[in-house]
UniProtKB/TrEMBL annotation:
The chain crosses the membrane at residues 47-66. It comes from Streptomyces diacarni. Keywords: Membrane, Transmembrane, Transmembrane helix. This is DUF3040 domain-containing protein. It comes from the Bacteria.
Length: 84
């Protein structure tokens, strides 16, 4: 027997010796439940991020409307002739 044939025979022997491990009967149900949990967490995170972004946008809008930051500030000094 050559080397590749011997290795192939060894692998075949090992595969034949190994008994098939039983699959739990509720495996599909557990996988579905875990998937639903993961999707729920992702949905909650996405909702929280959108809510945070919208709250930040609303705060920016309120700040901009209240302080009117785009107009120039009036001068703090008075003209020299104003007091005469």
């Amino acid at each position: 027997m050559s080397l590749p044939d011997r290795r192939e025979a060894e692998v075949r022997r090992l595969l034949e010796q190994r008994a098939a491990e039983p699959v739990p009967p509720d495996l599909a149900e557990r996988a579905r439940e875990e998937g639903e949990r993961l999707l729920g967490r992702r949905r909650a995170l996405r909702t929280a991020l959108w809510a945070g972004a919208l709250a930040g946008l609303a705060a920016l809008l309120v700040w901009a409307l209240a302080l009117d930051p785009w107009t120039a500030t009036p001068p703090k000094t008075t003209s020299p002739t104003a007091g005469w």
